[in-house]
Amino acid sequence: MTGLTLSEYNQAIMDSLRPPSRLYWAAVAALFAAIVWAAFAWGYQICEGMGVVGIKHPIGWGTYIVNFVFWIGIGHAGTLISAILYLVRVRWRTAIYRSAEAMTVFAVMTAGLFPLIHLGRVWVVWFILPYPNQRHLWPNFQSPLVWDVVAVSTYLTISILFWYAGMIPDLGAIRDATTGRRHRVYGFLALGWRAEHDQWRHYLRGYMCLAALATPLVISVHSVVSFDFAMSLLPGWHTTIFAPYFVAGAIHSGLAMVLMLLIPLRHFLRLERVIRIEHLEQTALLLILTGSIVLYAYIMEAFIAWYSGDIFERQFAVWRAFGNYSWAYAAQILCNCIAPYFMFFKRLRTSEAAMFLVGAAVTFGMWIERFVIVVDSTAHDFFPTNWDLYHPTWVEISILIGAISWFLFWFVLYSKHLPTVSIAQSKALQVGEATERL
Amino acid sequence: MTQDAGQISKRPARRGRRGDSCRGKACLAPTQDACIVAVFGDVPALATALRRLKEGGLRRLKVYSPVGLLELQALMPRRGSRIRFVTLVAGAWGMIGAFWTCIGSALLYGLIVGGKHPVSWLPYCIIGFEGTILVGGVTTFIAILMLARLRPAHATAAYDPRFGVDRYGVCVSCPAEQVQTLIALLREAGAEEVREGAAAPREESA
């Protein structure tokens, strides 16, 4: 229990929605400026062609695909916390799930940009959509790239609906506590919510159904993303371990991002009594679990390369560990597998600074891991004559920074305009104890 | 059955225009019926009131609460929801539609597949799965909106903003001659406040 009364929950969220300071708007403006710069870089790439980026034969997939996989992965922890932990009735999730869900939506929005940017000729993206046409031309549904489009667009749609559905009762409460224009806006978003039992009985069951649908979806999405690699024949990619490896890694990076977002958020919005250290501690403990799964995957990846007896797999595994990108391989092991184990110490996992640092290390490590996956295999395939190295240009780096800003821009806007903690579900925990005694 | 509840006639009260007590911009109960709103401070008091209303045969009521109280369903006039069935049917249609699109397009668009059958079931399972989730999820959301009657600018006269914070409410319709008995019953059950079905003016236009 938090010691908060039901009305104090409402008040805490209402306080967090007070008009923001100038510093807040300055941060929003800075993020927007970075987005504009990235848009300029993208425009430059569209005008000049793909020659302005570091992607060239044989490395056809560079930081754009790294970013795509990374941001899709970030979203996974949000769905884990909001849907999977909801189905298994984990109580500590209520304080953090709303922001984790928001993170999912914004991360998938960010990820969705990268296939478009990577495409080069973005104006022909509609070719991949299945639509009736006179020439009877259809996308090839056997292609992992088409699976990707279908999976990611489904994931974005369901994540937005699940996020919004969860907010409806809270928006109703905020509507009742506001006046004027804000009252009208929140009233519109609350869709006439009036806290009736007849609404609750449909709402709760519908929410449960959405959670039940989102759970297998989150597993499938990163599995499908992993198929982009695993369906090919390149050394390092053509492996059956990729689907669970990707899903575990995705949740690992997402949990780290949750820590990085929620630690400052609870201070800036003065939500320390609602989002408490215990909630962050549980997230940090989950980080140990997912870090261990990722470590197991790294070990198995190397073991399978040796055990397969395939000379291409073996040479690639050795090159990955000791070749040109060995720094990246070492960084991914240190950041993703070693850093989370600091959370075994109670003193560290109850320290916000330590949790933030570990979260930052894992987030960085998971981006590097995707770099290793995407770039290494294409840089070092079957033929020594094909081998090359990849160097991102200013265009790719600008777009990477712009993507981070784009994600933070939406998250910062969300944090001051929508309820960052579920009022209804937090209160339900307290009321649930009363009803259990009846 | 309590003494108070026993004083209430078990004759079913006359139903409103749409078979409901308080819906729309104002209470739609027929003019002979009164709409009583009681406010409770906790769940046990609410449960006691619901139990007594049920014993008294008063089933034309609405319950308001800041959280979902599915635990009290047995005391509510309506229970359950068809949403799960809607989700199941929509998911099945989504799967069928996705397979239909894949198979249909493979048969329409004659790719050269080297002697293999153009329809390739295994990869279509991924599209089929995503179709199941997409159509199932979107339909579930629409079903929530429709079944819970969620749409902007829809509020009831009995709604009180406190029901979204920390108070529980019951809005009961009963024949006008039984109003005093009903008020006494609700007060005895632990209601903090009992009034005839008007609400704070702002919520009527919300």
Report on the architecture of this protein.
The complex is a heterodimer of chains A (438) and B (206). With 438 residues, chain A is mainly α. Chain A has 15 helices and no strands. Chain A has helices spanning 6-16, 22-48, 63-87, 97-119, 144-177, 180-189, 197-230, 242-268, 277-308, 311-322, 326-338, 346-349, 352-379, 394-417, 423-436. Chain B has helices at residues 3-6, 43-55, 83-108, 121-147, 179-189, 201-204; strands at residues 22-23, 26-27, 33-40, 61-64, 168-175, 193-196. Chain B starts with a helix and ends with a helix. The relative contact order of chain B is 0.26. By secondary structure, chain B is α+β, with helices and mostly antiparallel strands. In chain B, helix 2 (43-55) runs antiparallel to helix 5 and helix 3 (83-108) runs antiparallel to helix 4. Chain B is 41% helix and 14% strand. Residues 1-30 and 199-206 of chain B have low confidence and may be disordered. Chains A and B meet through helix 1, helix 5, helix 6, helix 7 and helix 15 of A and helix 2, strand 4, helix 3 and helix 4 of B.
At CATH level 3, the topology of chain A is Formate dehydrogenase/DMSO reductase fold
DSSP helical segment count of chain B: 6
Low-confidence stretches of chain A: none
How many beta-strand elements of chain A? 0
Fold topology:
The complex is a heterodimer of chains A (438) and B (206).
Chain A: H1 6-16, H2 22-48, H3 63-87, H4 97-119, H5 144-177, H6 180-189, H7 197-230, H8 242-268, H9 277-308, H10 311-322, H11 326-338, H12 346-349, H13 352-379, H14 394-417, H15 423-436
Helix pairs in contact in A: 1-15, 2-14, 3-4, 3-7, 3-8, 3-13, 4-5, 4-8, 4-14, 5-6, 5-7, 7-8, 8-9, 8-13, 9-10, 9-11, 10-11, 11-13
Chain B: H1 3-6, E1 22-23, E2 26-27, E3 33-40, H2 43-55, E4 61-64, H3 83-108, H4 121-147, E5 168-175, H5 179-189, E6 193-196, H6 201-204
Antiparallel strand pairs in B: 1-2, 3-5, 3-6, 4-5
Helix pairs in contact in B: 2-5, 3-4
